UniProtKB/TrEMBL annotation:
Ranges spanned by the short sequence motif 'HIGH' region, renumbered to the chain: 123-133
Keywords: Aminoacyl-tRNA synthetase, ATP-binding, Cytoplasm, Ligase, Nucleotide-binding, Protein biosynthesis
Origin species: Desmospora profundinema
Localization annotation: Cytoplasm
Name of this protein: Arginine--tRNA ligase
Domain DALR anticodon binding: 451-566
Residues in Arginyl tRNA synthetase N-terminal domain copies: 6-85
Similarity comment: Belongs to the class-I aminoacyl-tRNA synthetase family.
Assembly, per entry: Monomer.
Source species, domain of life: Bacteria
Lineage: Bacteria, Bacillati, Bacillota, Bacilli, Bacillales
E.C. numbers: 6.1.1.19
């Protein structure tokens, strides 16, 4: 109802003889607690002093002056101006618009001609895909769709951790204990096994650390054995990651990992030196950021090796050059907040004003029994296992519910994956999330399957009502009842919610909105015989169809699928 509210605010602002702006009025609007009092109310208290009149009198005066063809009633009730919309007309407008625009309902052109680079997922090749990377993948992928919905061109970048000392360790471990067949058979698990073993044996044999470092140095110097192994590990891991992405329905435009910038490191360090920004500190080179209130940003180590931050500097310059971005977002855990503040500060020092439009988009941790889920020590929860379990459980649930699905396996995949995605996205991005397979998979409660099920219910009604192509035209809901009005209210807010999700870089806005819409619709469904043959059937089916469209598009923005049957 944001649009209708705005029209009301405009009228009040005009009647105030420009005492207040539309925005000021809008901020004060309320929804009357008792729906009998109308659909929106303006409280006049604030103006009493300025206008030297009691608020009741102000309300009276304003109510007499304003009117609108879409309002049924304007009334001063005590200090409030209440308006009751012509619900039938508003309902008809909202539904026609949705049925007409279909999946593009809620889209906007605000991003036209502008580009956002979104850096997300970005797992590390020597280590498995962690739950933190799952969060980054799911949040980032949803933000890609949210930004596209606002009309932005989006370039998604997978900043893979494919370079660094861990590769020295991995090469050393492979040469000691590894075999080609084992890596080929199950790359991520085997590389993880080698990595974990290396760390375990390192406690007893500290020399291993040095051995790992030597191999990384060889790799950096272009040693052919080291290079060969690195390429191969990378290729095998990437193949696995992509299998997981495909399974999850995630696409990322560019696999530009850290190694991609190898030949751009020299120029970055040179540029910093020429600008006089580098300081020596115990053999290392840093950019001092005292003025910004940040720790120094490490650029090269004493052995000349470059660091994570150096690579992010090179990556930012490359992206600006290649994509000409207007915004650059980095979706990682909040523990990297200082790192990104340093990187942005160094870019600013280099004179790049566009660094002001770079943002770290942090998120909370994934917890298990209140503790961070770790991948280092071997008490690993492999993402793939989590997804497999989710899908297996979804399959069981689906079989209990519906034995006649055309492709139960594919539906189970959509529901299982959807459950994992939604469980992550329904939480405020910054909150920690307690991991629970049990909670993810309920068909009722605040879950992905609940929404998919609600969508499928709507589709089934449309099939039974033979109304796959409900045409907007002379629709009227003969009696606009409270239950359908609530649904319409939510439906009409979808564009505003989609925009908010962009403004706050937070998919949970959409997730929570969909739950409200789903609840409102199920409530309506419980109260009304939608398919009853009477004059209102077509209109009711139009409502159902609009709900199906918005649920499907909302789930799509979260990166989820909306099967027509579950
Ligand atoms: N691979 C990194 C990690 O796992 C995340 C990379 C995030 N992106 C970036 N440009 N630094 O922590």
């Amino acid at each position: 109802m944001k649009q209708e509210w705005k029209a009301f605010a405009r009228a009040i602002a005009a009647a105030s003889k420009r005492e207040a702006s539309v925005e000021e009025v809008e901020a004060l609007l309320e929804r009357p607690r008792d729906p009998a009092h109308g659909d929106v109310a303006f409280p006049c208290f604030r103006w009493a002093k300025k206008w030297k009149q009691p608020p009741q009198a102000i309300a009276q005066m304003l109510a007499e002056q304003i009117s609108h063809p879409k309002w049924e009633q304007v009334e001063a009730v005590g200090p409030y101006v209440n308006v009751r919309f012509n619900r039938e007309r508003v309902t008809q407008e909202v539904l026609s618009r949705i049925l007409h625009e279909q999946g593009s309902y809620g889209s906007s052109y605000r991003g036209e001609g502008k580009t956002v680079v979104i850096d997300f997922s970005s797992p590390n090749i020597a280590k498995p895909f962690s739950m933190g990377h799952l969060r980054s993948t799911v949040i980032g992928h949803s933000l890609v769709r949210i930004a596209r919905k606002q009309g932005f061109r989006v370039e998604g970048v997978n900043h893979l951790g494919d370079w660094g000392t861990q590769f020295g360790k991995l090469i050393a471990a492979f040469r000691r204990w590894g075999s080609e067949e084992a890596v080929k058979a199950d790359p991520i698990r085997e590389l993880l096994r080698l990595y974990v073993r290396f760390h375990e044996e390192m406690t007893a044999n500290p020399e291993l650390e040095e051995e790992g470092r030597r191999w990384f140095k060889k790799l950096e110097d272009g040693d052919s054995e080291a290079q060969h192994l690195w390429h191969w590990f990378r290729k095998e891991s990437l193949r696995e990651f992509h299998r997981i992405y495909d399974w999850m329905g995630v696409t990322i435009d560019h696999d530009h990992g850290e190694a991609f910038y190898n030949d751009r490191m020299g120029p970055v360090v040179d540029a910093l030196r020429e600008m006089g920004l580098l300081r020596h500190s115990e053999g290392a080179q840093v950019v001092d950021l005292t003025e910004e209130g940040l720790p120094p940003c490490l650029i090269t180590k004493s052995d000349g090796a470059t660091l994570y931050a150096t690579r992010d500097l090179a990556a930012a310059l490359y992206r600006r050059e290649t994509f000409g971005f207007d915004y650059a977002w980095y979706v990682t855990g909040r523990e990297q907040a200082v790192h990104f503040r340093q990187v942005f500060a160094v870019l600013k020092r280099m004179g790049h004003v566009w660094a002001d439009r770079m943002e770290h988009i942090p998120f909370g941790m994934m917890l298990q029994n209140g503790k961070k889920m770790s991948t280092r020590k071997g008490n690993v929860v492999l993402l793939e296992e989590v997804l497999q379990q989710a899908v297996a459980r979804a399959q069981k649930l689906i079989e209990q519910k519906n034995g006649t699905l055309a492709d139960p396996e594919e539906t189970a995949r959509q529901v299982g994956i959807g459950a994992v995605i939604f469980h992550d996205l329904k939480h405020d991005r910054l909150h920690d999330v307690e991991f629970s397979l049990d909670q993810m998979l309920h068909f009722d409660g605040e879950t992905g399957p609940y929404l998919q099920y609600t969508h499928a219910r709507a589709c089934s009604l449309l099939r039974k009502g033979k109304a796959a192509n409900v045409v907007p035209g002379s629709l009227s809901l003969p009696v606009v009842m409270e239950e359908s009005w609530r649904v319409v209210t939510y439906l009409s807010d979808f564009p505003a919610v989609a925009a908010q999700a962009f403004d706050y870089r937070d998919p949970s806005r959409i997730a929570r909105y969909l739950l409200q819409l789903g609840q409102a619709f199920n409530h309506y469904y419980a109260h009304v015989h939608i398919l009853q043959e009477d004059g209102g059937k077509e209109a009711r089916l139009a409502l159902v169809s609009a709900v199906a469209i918005v649920l499907k598009e909302g789930l799509h923005l979260l990166g989820m699928e909306a099967p027509e049957e579950v």
